[in-house]
Amino acid sequence: MPSLRVVSADEHRDYLATLPTASFLQTPGWAKVKPEWRSEHLAWVDDDGRTVGAALVLYRQLPRLNRFLAYLPEGPVIDWSSDRLGDWLDPLVRHLKGEGAFAVRIGPPVVTRRWTAAQIKGGIADADVRRLGQIPPLERSAAGARVVSQLHELGWRHQAAEGGFAAGQPQFVYQIPLVQADRTPHTEESLLKGMNQQWRRNIKKADKEGVEVSVGTGADLKAFHDLYVHTAERDHFTPRPLRYFEVMYDALNEEGATEPVSEMKLWLARHHGDLVAATLSVRVGTHAWYSYGASSTEKRDVRGSNAVQWAMIRDALAAGATVYDLRGITDTLDADDSHVGLIQFKVGTGGEAVEYAGEWDLPINRVLYKAFQIYLARR
């Protein structure tokens, strides 16, 4: 049974560097992005002293109490195929309890179901279908089902995807596989073929209109942020401050690290000198993510958003990534729901909707955990 110990950020990073990928939310750099949370780096070690698992833990203090929610976003990074998850999670819980945690929240990076773009398109067109779960999936993961079953048996509680405390990660995401069924890499041509006609037309139009996409530097974050604030005003969401993105850019590029495990890029799409779209992407090994995006209201007809997405997809493919992750979607397929437009945009890329196991809580102090739930419900 692996044992648990506290490690340095460098030891944590060195272990992740040996893996094909891990969530960028479990990299040492992510702790710097969340300074309002106390952070800790942990490792599981086998009997021979080899590191076999790792975790970034973020501790969020309860108001006026010296007790914490211990949060492992999209983690921990362990062997989730194990039939004895208690051997991994029990020592974790014991340690976190000793650190003052009243509850633990984890996000197993384990897929449970997948749906094709064609299935989703058909569901949106069907008036009787309101939710993704009403459609029989293309795939049900046996490994995912084993994880869910074990977590229930171990007393963990599944949380709604919209769970808060400034923490919750999406349970449903949209991804473009960059490898084919036989595990050979896609080509740019085969990826374009998988897109719908509208996406191909928009990419072609952006090129014809002279949209130019380039990779920026940290100095260009102000231009990105100005466009992002414009997007927030148009689409009615609260924007993050510029400083958040400056910290995130430096942290995920791990300035000073000899072997950074994560890479963030800033992408800028310009039309005759005007910034029409800007995005941030992250890559850890074979997994690439679209993180944040912004677009101008003017010149939307030059299709800068499609152009910049296509540039990020091509870059991920060239870097050897096996998946391009467009991140969260809701599970609604109701044509009258305002959220359905997001999934329609992403469905046009081809790809597939993917459901993960979601986030799970284990109450340690049940009284405080109940108070915590009441606090969340009133927010």
Automatic annotation (TrEMBL):
InterPro entries found in the cross-reference section: Acyl_CoA_acyltransferase, FEMABX, PG_Glycine_Bridge_Synth
Pfam family of the protein (one): FemAB
Superkingdom of origin organism: Bacteria
KW Transferase (keyword) present: yes
Keyword annotations of the record: Acyltransferase, Cell shape, Cell wall biogenesis/degradation, Peptidoglycan synthesis, Transferase
PROSITE patterns in the cross-refs: FEMABX (PS51191)
Family indicated by similarity: Belongs to the FemABX family.
Name of protein: Peptidoglycan bridge formation glycyltransferase FemA/FemB family protein
Species of provenance: Nocardioides bizhenqiangii
